[in-house]
Every structure is written in structure tokens, then in C-alpha cells.
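Z., the sequence and structure:
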Amino acid sequence: MITNEQVISIGKLTRTHGKRGEVQCLMSNEYWDNADATFLILSINNILVPFRVLDWRGKGSDSLIFQLDRINDEQSAQQLVGCQAYMLLSDINEDDELLPTWQSLVGYSVLDTDQGELGTITDVDETTINTLITLNNTQLIPLHEDFIIDIQQEKKQITICLPFIFTKE
């Protein structure tokens, strides 16, 4: 079984491409471009599922088109749209500097300087200009580097100060 500690987020599948089951991935970094990876790991129902990559190519400056093994029609590909995409950390080119990503905060507890503990991050949505985190209590909170006071990786904890009134229900 693949664990969150073994992968790094590289993007999100945004749409199908063509009729042969290809999927388009909006990339959040360039790790895939520099790696010699064989598998694209997708988060399906919060389970990390590996798919062998048969072929891939660029589309524009920030998207890649993937052809995955056993996904050979538009219907199968459509079921993967919206999945977060990962790659194995072991496939990262050793010359690439591993930069923390918003996705790496999944599983961190969130503390607000005024409200105390708000919950645990279960999802990070970067599909719009405003990054949102979803907490285990389904609350959505905007995430911006200006709101972050401290990140403690060893405790898996992030402290934030929201610039607006936020009431915990």
C-alpha cells in the first residue's frame, strides 16, 4: 500500500482528452518533467492508487496529457477527473530541490491564534486563484502565505491568523 509519506503532489486531473481515455493534468510543479517515473498515483476516495503511465506529453505551459494503462475510453477517464495526482518521491530527480507544497499540508492540524484548534486538513483545493483547505469538519478556509504564522512539520501542525472574523461551529 502506498502511503502519503511516499508521494508528492504534482497536480490535479481536470478533464478528459479525446476518445482514447487520456486525461489532462493541471500541474502544480515540474517534478514529473524531470523524473523518469513509471506510475502516476491518483487519490481515489482518499486511497492512493497507482496507474502505469503508457505515454504522456505536454499541453500548454502548465498541463500534461496522460495515457494510463487500463484507461482506454472516455467513460473510464471521466471517472478520474478531479483526482489529485501524485508521483513517488523515489522517482524525483535527485537534482530537484523538494519544495513544500500546499498539498503536503494534508493531515496537519490547524490552529488559529484566536479560535484555537479548528480541525485537521483533509483536502487542499488549488483549482482556483484562491487556495482553500477543507477541514475534517467540512469547513472551508482560505489559505494564503500571509495568514500562516508557523508550520511545525514534526508536529504536523499549522498555526494561522485569519484577517476576518471566523467562528467555529
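The chain has a mean pLDDT of 88. Residues 74-78 form the longest helix (5 residues).

Let me know what you think.
H.
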